Amino acid sequence: MDLGIRGKTGLVCAASKGLGRGCAEALAEAGVDLVINARGAEALEATAAEIAAKHGVKVTPVAADITTDEGRARVLDALGGQADILVTNAGGPPPGNWTDWSRDDFIKAIDANMLTAIALMQALVPGMIERKWGRVVNITSQSVRTPISVLGLSNTARAGLTGFVAGMSRQVAPHGVAVNNLLPGIHATDRAVSLDTGVAKAEGISLEEARIRREASIPTRTYGLAEDFGATCAFMCSQHARFMIGQNVLLDGGASNSAI
Ligand code: NAP
């Protein structure tokens, strides 16, 4: 299927690895010129060079912390202040217990997983409205639908972003801009290794055993792949997604047991 976005420009945040990289790869395959971002310059530059060589598009790496004003300013500068496609993403907050999180912990999580996405939309969506075309995909989490107790910081921040998008997406839809969220269940990335390491430590089992147990709880019996996640993201950024507005698209292998 031709996604109809060849020649568009896009920003994919937190994209040197994992789900962000999967999204960048799929958008590049569809012919989108990209700015990609992560904090670590070395991995980011290697990823940008690989994607550009493989798909023949322009990929500009900007090493910066996307959760800071300064980092976002540098990324927006590299875009010349405008993009047709925005994929928001950042690292997830650490697990813990609800009794232990301080105000600072909450502010940090809300900054990274709620306010950063909102700031980027506020910076880039007005230009999309002017040009009468735009697509935004926010990478959130399965935890928005089925909260994961040890990830309370993530549950809290992402719930806020979900509420914001529910309203704002309807306000910008008349102008040809489609804003949606993409909700990963467990995917085989470094984040999954880090979460499984926490479970292994807490339960006194091996990392492999933690993964086997988690896989057994998913109807597909496997973790998701960044490539498949990226392909869904690229579809949500395509011409064909014009009627998809304010949705929360869940990719979790059927792990959330609900009818809708
Ligand atoms: P990952 O494999 O650990 O990759 C994270 C990427 O984000 C890396 O490129 C990392 O590079 C970059 N990054 C992290 N913090 C950043 C920051 N402050 N500014 C810029 N770049 C940053 O993680 P992932 O699995 O792709 O997860 C992506 C998001 O999805 C996270 O918010 C995670 O909580 C959420 N999620 C993941 C899963 C899953 O199973 N994988 C499930 C539910 C939700 P640097 O470290 O160099 O910055």
Automatic annotation (TrEMBL):
InterPro entries tied to this protein: NAD(P)-bd_dom_sf (IPR036291), SDR (IPR050259), SDR_fam (IPR002347)
Pfam families recorded: adh_short_C2
UniProt cross-references to PANTHER family, sorted A to Z: 3-OXOACYL-(ACYL-CARRIER-PROTEIN) REDUCTASE (PTHR42879), NADPH-DEPENDENT REDUCTASE BACG (PTHR42879:SF6)
Family per record: Belongs to the short-chain dehydrogenases/reductases (SDR) family.
Protein name: 3-oxoacyl-[acyl-carrier protein] reductase
